[in-house]
Design brief:
This protein is an alpha/beta fold. The protein has one domain: P-loop containing nucleotide triphosphate hydrolases (Rossmann fold, 3-Layer(aba) Sandwich), CATH 3.40.50. The protein contains six helices and ten strands; from the N terminus they run E-E-E-H-E-E-H-E-H-H-H-E-H-E-E-E.
Length: 233
């Protein structure tokens, strides 16, 4: 059987805040691979560099040293046009869902889909409804976000991220503010729908309650990354 495609590859990736004299090294010679269709957890203490690594992979921050390729693009040498194209295939889910409260659930999700000759308003609406159905929100599509629970709002954010079928989903502490049941539903939604789409999912988290949804776990501490068991500390 053919091996899954590597969507993210980093080698000797380092990142430092500040100057050489007074700055702080956050990532030291990071090496990692993330493949299509897998769910990977990124764990580590606060301040260990999890968010820095997510923003580097998401092309929101410029790499400083080493190599980082995302969806076939070398982020150290990419042009602005290449980065714009790359970002169309990457989506983020944050701890705060950042929904537009003036729009309904359905409108929040369809707002992320462009109207093109092959994807018009009717097609986008149907696509959004199908995604919300996958996430158990079909009864809420005409509600405003303030009428939803925190877990439901976060699932809307997941639907918004996944509806455009990205190649890579990056989630930064998406269950941190949710209770156990809501956090489990959000993690299950990201892992199940991500796998169905063949999307690679990278989740930064402290939440041990969602570890069992992952295929692998990467742990950052003191700037160094290592594979850890998804069943242990």
């Amino acid at each position: 059987m053919e091996a899954p495609i590597r969507l993210v590859t980093a080698r000797e990736l380092s990142y430092r805040y500040g100057t050489a004299e007074t700055g702080r090294s956050v990532l030291n010679n990071i090496a990692l691979d993330i493949r299509a269709g897998e769910v990977v957890l990124l764990t580590g203490p606060s301040g260990s560099g999890k968010t820095t690594l997510l923003t580097l992979i998401g092309s929101l921050r410029q790499p400083q040293q080493g190599t980082l390729q995302v969806l076939g693009v070398d982020l150290l040498t990419a042009s602005p046009a290449q980065l714009r194209q790359l970002r169309q295939n990457i989506r983020f889910v944050y701890q705060r869902h950042n929904l537009l409260h003036s729009l309904t659930v359905l409108q929040n999700v369809t707002a992320c889909l462009p109207n093109t000759p092959t994807s018009g308003r009717v097609a986008n609406r149907q696509r959004a409804i199908e995604m919300l159905g996958h996430l158990g929100l079909i009864a809420k599509i005409h509600e405003k976000p303030e009428r939803l629970s925190g877990g439901q709002q976060q699932r809307v954010a997941v639907a918004r991220a996944l509806v455009s079928s990205p190649a890579l989903l990056l989630a930064d502490e998406p269950t941190a503010s949710l209770d156990s049941e809501a956090g489990q539903r959000v993690a299950r939604a990201m892992s199940d729908v991500g796998r169905q789409l063949g999307c690679a999912v990278l989740i930064s988290t402290h939440d041990e309650r969602i570890f069992h949804f992952a295929d692998r776990r990467l742990h950052i501490e003191d700037g160094v990354i290592a594979e850890r068991s998804i069943r242990g500390p």
